[in-house]
């Protein structure tokens, strides 16, 4: 009985967070799902798409009980076999990507909420009927403001902590459960990426559905090197946009060339190269 009460209270809290009283669509069976909620479905998928492991390392060095030799059916001191260790590695890899995207979204959201406030409306343009398919499907929330994106992000952060916890020694002993958790992390990654994308479009006036959106010139040749050049490298528009805003405010826009490496290209800047071209583009003096 105590358990039923707990679940009800938890669901009530979730319904409050996702504003379930707003009738945009009936609430699904698993709003803001936690690890066990979609496990059964993951297991069904994993039955059809059986994981295949081709270990890139025979050892596990994850904790001070090791190194543990996991070859020829041996188990580590914590009891895991080599398949479980491989699956744990996959989960960790998924979490690295998921947390990198979510942390980026968190940084951008913090910056934009400070600048515009949490009630800044999400408007992606006239032709967008479904603004956030991942957030709607996974979280069960129809985001209307930057503050709503914050609610979805807090959910992602919480799940990342639980998933990472399961990678600690002795927390999980089943390769299939690690695979289920990797699917969970990958699903959350799409939520985190969508949060960052929407926040950037809304907060920095990035391109929306408007057809006449100007295109950014690409490549080394697109840069006017006769001017002083500011090259912004990385993915964070919170830094690159303030450079451009400063130049505009001081009427210097035509006198300085601003370009971006990797994701940092935006309107009026030239995208000079992708990330793997960073070294050839940024020349450093030999010591
Ligand atoms: S996590 Fe387990 S298998 Fe890995 S080193 Fe520690 S005890 Fe050995």
Low-confidence stretches: none
Number of helices: 8
- By DSSP, the count of extended strands is 5
Q: Class of the largest domain in CATH?
A: Mainly Alpha
Summary tags:
287 residues; 3-stranded parallel beta sheet; 2 domains; binds iron/sulfur cluster; two-stranded antiparallel ribbon; mainly alpha; Substrate Binding Domain Of Dnak, Chain:A, Domain 2; 8 helices
Task: Give a brief outline of the structure.
This protein is mostly helical. The chain has helices at 2-17, 39-48, 82-116, 133-139, 146-165, 175-204, 237-249, 278-281; strands at residues 59-60, 68-69, 229-233, 257-261, 270-273. The longest helix is centred in the middle third of the chain and has 35 residues, at 82-116.
Description:
This protein has 287 residues and is mainly α. It folds into two domains: 13-204, Substrate Binding Domain Of Dnak, Chain:A, Domain 2; 220-281, no CATH class. The chain is built from eight helices and five strands, in the order ααββααααβαββα. The strands form two sheets. The chain has a three-stranded parallel sheet, with helices on one face. The chain has a two-stranded antiparallel sheet with strand order 1-2. It is globular and about 65 Å long. The mean pLDDT is 89.
Detail the topology: elements first, then pairings:
Layout: H1 2-17, H2 39-48, E1 59-60, E2 68-69, H3 82-116, H4 133-139, H5 146-165, H6 175-204, E3 229-233, H7 237-249, E4 257-261, E5 270-273, H8 278-281
Parallel strand pairs: 3-4, 4-5
Antiparallel strand pairs: 1-2
Helix pairs in contact: 2-6, 3-5, 3-6, 4-6, 5-6
Iron/sulfur cluster (SF4) binds at residues 60-63, 65-66, 68, 76-78, 80, 169.
């Amino acid at each position: 009985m105590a358990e039923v009460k707990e679940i009800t209270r938890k669901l009530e809290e979730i319904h409050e967070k996702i504003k379930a009283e707003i009738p945009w669509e009936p609430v699904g069976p698993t709003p803001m799902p936690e690890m066990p909620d979609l496990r059964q479905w993951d297991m069904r998928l994993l039955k059809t798409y059986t994981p295949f492991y081709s270990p890139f390392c025979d050892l596990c060095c994850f904790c001070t009980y090791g190194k543990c030799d996991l070859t020829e059916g041996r188990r580590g001191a914590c009891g895991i076999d080599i398949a479980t260790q491989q699956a744990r590695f996959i989960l960790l890899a998924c979490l690295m990507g998921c947390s990198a995207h979510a942390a980026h979204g968190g940084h951008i959201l913090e910056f934009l909420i400070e600048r515009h406030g949490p009630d800044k409306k999400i408007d992606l343009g006239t032709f967008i009927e479904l603004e956030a398919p991942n957030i709607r499907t996974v979280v069960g929330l129809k985001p209307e403001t930057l503050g709503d994106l914050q609610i979805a992000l807090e959910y992602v952060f919480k799940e990342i902590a639980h998933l990472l916890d399961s990678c600690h020694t002795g927390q999980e002993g089943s390769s299939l459960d690690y695979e289920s958790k990797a699917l969970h992390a990958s699903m959350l990654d799409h939520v985190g990426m969508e949060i960052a994308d929407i926040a950037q479009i809304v907060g920095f006036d990035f391109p929306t559905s408007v057809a006449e959106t100007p295109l950014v010139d690409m490549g080394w040749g697109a840069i006017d090197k006769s001017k002083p050049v500011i090259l912004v490298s990385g993915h964070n528009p919170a830094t690159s946009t303030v450079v451009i805003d400063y130049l505009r405010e001081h009427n210097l826009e035509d006198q300085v060339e601003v370009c971006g490496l990797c994701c940092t290209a935006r309107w009026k800047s030239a995208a000079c190269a992708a990330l793997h071209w960073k070294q050839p583009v940024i020349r450093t003096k030999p010591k």
